[in-house]
Design brief:
Helix content: 40-55%
Distance between the termini: 35 Å
Largest sheet: 5 strands, antiparallel
CATH superfamily of the largest domain: P-loop containing nucleotide triphosphate hydrolases
Shape: globular
Strand content: 5-15%
CATH architecture of the largest domain: 3-Layer(aba) Sandwich
CATH topology of the largest domain: Rossmann fold
CATH class of the largest domain: Alpha Beta
């Protein structure tokens, strides 16, 4: 791509160009003629493109602390060709310029070890890259070091966190961890970077990454489902011990990978020294010196065997019921309602049908039907990925069933309007008739989107904050006898203590039960002491001193609330009362007894908000007015935070 000089800079040469980003060497027009690196999007047709917005996020959410293993943008320049990030020119070569062929074993091992060392520095500082690829790695062979670009912070220094962006650079498609796809329901943490490094090491030895997706969908499928290519067994390509390390790094389950970059560095150092000194590598079991130095919580569910059985019962009742079976999840804040749905129910849904969902919000109570707008957006995203024949049939069926009333939905749901086109609304309707037709057309829309071969499941979360129109629609869906075999199937979640018994929607659920309707109640109770012990055992891998006493302390302090428990452990870790030394975790019992801490999770979170920097609190104050989820333009971040860079969101 040909670009013109930028004010104050003379562009010397293109260093590298990928599918979405490029690096350009620039020379200062000042007398000192300093050299800089510019990172720019390849496509400049839209200054608001995903690539352009991603670069803006990398700048506005850049780390506010210097890291020896990272290169951090010094300035963002808005040009006719899109935003450009300005860096001090890093030493060495971009790894993407070296990976078109297999590297010599000695060099491949050195590059791998230096990347692992850089990751250890970044992870120890509390950051996760979550987008590592050869296009983000600068290798300085002379200085025996690696630096990484593309690092950003979402929550401030001192906690492990990933980039605040759903955008996945095409350059990183062959390297992203399964957790980044979203379908594994696992949290992204530092082990994402170790998976990416495994794919890069594979490429250093073979010349190509293990997976070479041509689209984001192929990318998701490869990292979620495909096994490693047979080339991993070729001893002429991979020394056997290197192959063992790569296999461990590329495990789909993060609990089976290396748990720390430091453990990987130890193994790569041993392999490198063997090769340099002996020209051969002795066999050993990978990960012997590895340990959990970061606080990674297990994704397992504890004390939920009874709830699992009831969820399975709900799945079986979907056939032969007079009305579509309804699943109701209740419990206190932080009891794990949404988490249980994602881990125990969602996998079955994704095998047999498709999911749409919404989360009601106190901030949206004055927006009628706000929850159903979220549902329609999710449905449109699903159908947009279908083949043209399926989309065309869906459009035809929806037009035939809804007629002119479809405009009552397309006026609220832009994604649907883009698919179905513009529809006029009859402005002469009185409010009562308009509301009646709105309810009718929403029922039609959802029924068309659900069919026997692929039923629609809708998860309505936090219905204690449901608006009036959504409540009316939900009641009609609950009592609809035509949905028994085809759906849509409803899952409702609410905080039982905050949802009034006399609320019309809650009364409708009770009436449905009394009328013989199929309703299954799942109440998320607090963890037992045994459940807390299990959580600690899986989180610390048996490397925690006096874990039984800590379990008893946590059980007393948190009353077994899963969210409170995790946040309390994070507080312990952040304040130095829970720490890792070598391969063992230890905790300070005396300090914990004196530790002032809230008695419930809401108060604990309020205390964490109060401890934020003023700029960060300002961002949160604005965000809470917009609802639980919103798309924030990165360039507004500084304005929200009062001009401060580095505030969390």
């Amino acid at each position: 791509m040909i670009i013109n000089d930028i004010s104050g800079l003379k562009l010397i040469e293109d260093l590298w160009q990928g599918n979405s980003l490029q690096f350009v060497l620039a020379l200062s027009s000042e007398a000192d003629s300093r050299r800089f690196l510019l990172e720019m999007p390849v496509r400049a047709e839209s200054l608001s493109s995903e690539e352009a917005q991603h670069l803006r996020r990398l700048y506005h959410f850049r780390p506010d602390t210097e890291l020896t293993a990272a290169i951090i943008p010094r300035q963002i320049l808005e040009t006719d060709a899109g935003p450009a990030l300005l860096y001090e020119l890093p030493a060495g070569r971009l790894l993407a310029t070296m990976t078109g062929r297999p590297l010599a074993t000695s060099q491949a091992l050195d590059v791998a070890m230096r990347i692992a060392q850089a990751l250890a520095v970044i992870h120890d500082a509390g950051f996760v890259h979550a987008g590592i690829s050869p296009a983000r790695i600068w290798y300085d062979e002379a200085a025996a070091r690696v630096t990484l670009s593309g690092l950003c912070s979402a929550a401030g220094h001192g906690r492990v966190h990933a980039a605040p962006s759903g955008h996945i650079e095409p350059e990183s498609w062959p390297y992203i961890a399964p957790e980044r796809v979203g379908r594994t329901l696992r949290t992204e943490d530092s082990r994402c970077d170790l998976y990416s490094l495994g794919a890069i090491i594979y490429q250093l030895f073979s010349g190509v990454p293990p997976f070479q997706p041509r689209s984001i969908l192929e990318c998701f499928h490869a990292h979620l489902a495909l096994p490693l290519p047979d080339e991993i067994c070729e001893t002429t390509i991979f020394p056997p011990q290197v192959a063992r390390v790569v296999r461990k790094l590329l495990c789909k389950n993060p609990d089976e990978r290396y748990q720390s970059a430091a453990g990987l560095v130890a193994d790569l150092r041993r392999i490198y020294d063997d090769w340099q000194n002996n020209g051969a590598i002795t066999d050993f079991e990978p990960g012997q010196l590895d340990s959990r130095t970061q606080l990674h919580f297990s994704d397992d569910l504890f004390d939920r065997a009874h709830e699992f059985r009831l969820a399975h019962d709900w799945a079986c009742r979907r056939q032969g019921s007079r009305t579509a079976p309804v699943l109701v999840l209740t419990g206190a804040p932080g009891s794990g309602k949404t988490d249980f749905f994602r881990r125990a129910i969602l996998p079955d849904i994704l095998e047999s049908g498709h999911l749409a969902g919404c989360k009601f919000d106190q901030a949206l109570l004055e927006q009628p039907g706000s929850g159903f707008v979220q549902v329609a957006d999710a449905i449109c995203r699903t159908f947009a990925s279908e083949i043209p024949e399926v989309i065309e049939l869906w459009q035809k069926n929806l037009e035939a069933a809804a007629g002119n009333d479809l405009g009552l939905i397309t006026a609220r749901v832009q994604a649907l309007a883009r698919i179905m086109g513009h529809h006029e609304i009859d402005e002469t309707l009185d409010p009562a008739e308009a509301r009646k037709r709105t309810c009718r057309v929403w029922k039609i829309f959802l029924r068309v989107c659900s069919y026997v071969e692929k039923p629609l499941y809708i998860f309505f979360d936090d219905i204690q904050w449901v608006d009036d129109l959504s409540s009316e629609l939900l009641i009609e869906l609950l009592l609809d006898k035509n949905s028994a075999n085809t759906g849509p199937y409803l899952i409702l979640a609410y905080r039982d203590e905050e949802f009034a018994l006399e609320h019309p929607l809650r009364k409708a659920v009770e009436e449905l039960k009394a009328d013989g309707g199929s309703v299954i109640d799942l109440k998320m109770t607090p963890l037992s002491l045994h459940g807390v012990e299990q959580l600690l055992a899986t989180t610390f891998g048996g490397q925690l001193d006096d874990s039984g006493a800590l379990a008893e302390f946590l059980y007393r302090r948190t009353a077994g609330n899963p969210l409170f428990l995790r946040h309390f452990l994070q507080k312990m870790h952040a304040e130095g009362h829970l720490s890792c030394s070598g391969a063992r975790w230890a905790w300070d019992a005396a300090a914990l007894e004196r530790l002032g801490c809230s008695d419930n999770v809401v108060a604990l979170l309020c205390a964490r908000l109060a401890a934020m920097a003023p700029a960060s609190r300002r961002v949160m104050e604005v965000a809470v007015c917009l609802g639980y989820e919103f798309a924030a333009a990165a360039e507004c971040h500084g304005d929200l935070a009062g001009g401060s860079q580095g505030a969390g969101t």
